[in-house]
Amino acid sequence: MNQAHVEDLTRFLRFPSVSTDPERRQDVRACAQWLAGKLAAQGLQTRCEETGGHPIVVARNEHRAGRPTVMIYGHYDVQPVDPVALWDSPPFEPRIENGIVFARGAADNKGQILAHVLGVGETLAEKGGLPVNLIFVIEGEEEVGSTHLESFLTAHRDELRCDVVAVSDTGMVAPGVPTLTYGLRGIAAMELKVTGPATDLHSGIFGGAVANPLTVLSRLLASLHDAQGRVAVPGFYEDVAPLADWEREAWRTLPFGDAEIQRLTGVPALHGEAGFTSLERLWARPTAEINGVGGGFQGQGSKTVIPREAFAKLTFRLVPNQDPQKILASVGAFLRAQCPPSVRLEVLDGHCGEPYAADPHSAHGKAAQGALKSTFGRPVALIREGGSIPIVNTFRRVLGVETLLLGLALPDCRAHAPNENFPLENFFAGIRLNRALLEELAACSPQTDSAR
Amino acid sequence: MNQAHVEDLTRFLRFPSVSTDPERRQDVRACAQWLAGKLAAQGLQTRCEETGGHPIVVARNEHRAGRPTVMIYGHYDVQPVDPVALWDSPPFEPRIENGIVFARGAADNKGQILAHVLGVGETLAEKGGLPVNLIFVIEGEEEVGSTHLESFLTAHRDELRCDVVAVSDTGMVAPGVPTLTYGLRGIAAMELKVTGPATDLHSGIFGGAVANPLTVLSRLLASLHDAQGRVAVPGFYEDVAPLADWEREAWRTLPFGDAEIQRLTGVPALHGEAGFTSLERLWARPTAEINGVGGGFQGQGSKTVIPREAFAKLTFRLVPNQDPQKILASVGAFLRAQCPPSVRLEVLDGHCGEPYAADPHSAHGKAAQGALKSTFGRPVALIREGGSIPIVNTFRRVLGVETLLLGLALPDCRAHAPNENFPLENFFAGIRLNRALLEELAACSPQTDSAR
């Protein structure tokens, strides 16, 4: 174990680079500057790009014509630490126990991005150069919606031209199992507001003669699914790309399935759309989820009111080739058509993100698989994930390239939660993965000439 | 206009006798003592009965054998004043404008009970005695659930034996329209809690493979009604006493109906059980109302969670001859039978109150109608009300007598709300009503000998 690398990691983790907290603004900047210094010390041409928000750290080696250009993307900002009382040790005082480092940001995403930085440093130190043209883009606003990333990419499109992007901010299906994520779900958000009487009414005096907004809302929400767990909005599944046979087959043999999902979630029994396995439901099927509902009396005991209004917050997770705007329009029309004249329904469309899928069997995909396999010495799990990573669509849209998602975090790394952690084993695997990945990608034909 | 009576009213209204507020405990007591002094000054034998909570003011004339005994019940405690900023003048500084007195408690119930006290005082002053045996029971805990009333009635059952109770704490259907309320709905409260995962889950990562407690709850709540607005719980209507023909007929001609209900509530359109008018739905049909629902993210924007739990607060308004406990059991069984194994459902039964109906054409009912008609000079509206007044069942159960509900408050008296008010016209009508009522009741045959 290279002790200097561990010291770099703990130094990196000590910065409380909480991007959402205005009081941490200087800490975020100090973290960016430390990281830029580390990149420069490896021999890369480095700068901190000002954005109006938190800086983006950009670094590159000397680009040469005739070889592929690889962008490695990551982030140095972290989630807030609340609830801090649930941490076993202070979140910004890294603690190493049984080969696992505990600290905010350890698994999301400081451990992984630093592994890439140190991997590049090792190669440069040993060989005096990298096998590819490399660009690091490491932002400080990933946890607050990557506010300035797209405008940065757009403004520097020429400088950032590349053949592929590599990101290690996804998970491994199980310890030791190399994992390539080639698909992500999209999202469409919506808020419903049902308004009835002018003020809260006494449910004894007026109950029975007026519609209760909570009853109407419940009926609308219940209409979203049929009895088999399918989304009942007409046309909802119209554009869904069916699962390929190889995907069904590959997922069936993964060391992650119903038992692990039930254990991780703690539900009494699993539940989902009829006709699909749990992994298929999570990774390849769209959903309609209610994220919040509120209305009427929320306190202890009872209060006999018919509330004047009630709301629900919904998100739809979407899969290729669903269009978020089209889904919002279908759902809105479906709900409006059902709403009785005794209340008013407002349907407020929220943020959207496209679903994503790349071909894991493309040349870049095969290179990633090769690097993962040689790093971990096991066959690679090819998976999709149920969440959304909007930046992959940004890279596709602005730079015209696909993203390789090479997982290094374990299912119990507790990202965004107390006692976030990252095994040092995975940190060192990340360093080896970086070296293997750049070598594998060097063998792909370059599409883009980024040399200047 | 008797100015001394108006001064008594404003004096009574100045006491901030908010029974729920521990800091007002002495004010509540001072109010009881002032009221007891007023009753004693009329020549009644009076005491403040200690209860462990706020005192009950009890007063009686000299009872004589061979004549009926009438209990007049009321309360001197009032609701809190919040939100105080919405009052046009301080709630405990009575303001008279255009013949209307504005103050907390004016219409609920100080104006009405003082009218009864002053009516008795006028009769005693003029005639040296009352035509009936009279007992005043005026409590200070009506707004906090009449905590000690039942134990007081039980402990003093002999002393409080009577033929009938008269209460003026209900409403008039319209200004100037004398109103006798002969029925009230009962209530049964229930809380539902649906629990799924062990903690809130990321709705991208886990959405689709686990049941969402908010979706399950919405489906349970939606199942409470059918598409025609009927309660869909099996057996729910089994014990409902059908409306009598005379009731349907009497309610059809009231100066209160759909237009007034829509104006008072401000709903876009009325809604209710198919096959009934709005007044029938309010007064003679049971309901299932959702008083509150909560779960998941309640703040601004969106948060992509599957919440670990969700709750709903329900109340059922019941009509004769429904049994609250039986209704709770039916609803609980209906909901439990539907709940999928992917979540846990807790059904918590809450407080219950029996429905109430008396015969407005009984001897006492006719006496009340006669008094109302002579006081207001118009035919009497015979109505039920949609709310619940638990004490009427307490009087029936403990004392074995019916209660006459003689309304004096107008629909816009704003009880429990800012700018509560009571027209002085109704206050003086209440004084006349008291005199007429005792005369009419004097003609009924006594069932109970309370003389001692």
Describe this structure in words.
The structure is a homodimer of 452-residue chains. Chain A has 452 residues and is of the alpha+beta class. Chain A folds into 2 domains: 3-184 and 355-442, Aminopeptidase (3-Layer(aba) Sandwich); 186-240 and 286-353, Alpha-Beta Plaits (2-Layer Sandwich), CATH 3.30.70. Helices cover 33% and strands 22% of the residues of chain A. Chain A has 12 helices and 18 strands. The first copy, chain A, has helices at residues 3-14, 25-41, 106-127, 149-155, 213-222, 245-252, 258-265, 278-283, 324-338, 363-376, 390-399, 424-442, and strands at 45-49, 56-60, 69-75, 95-97, 100-102, 133-139, 164-167, 179-184, 186-195, 201-202, 287-296, 305-306, 309-318, 344-353, 356-357, 381-385, 403-406, 421-423. In chain A, strands 1, 2, 3, 6, 7, 8, 15, 16 and 17 form a 9-stranded mixed beta sheet that branches. A 4-stranded antiparallel beta sheet of chain A has the order 11-13-9-14. In chain A, a hairpin with a 6-residue loop joins β1 (45-49) and β2. At the A-B interface, β9, β10, α5, α7 and α8 of A face β9, β10, α5, α7 and α8 of B.
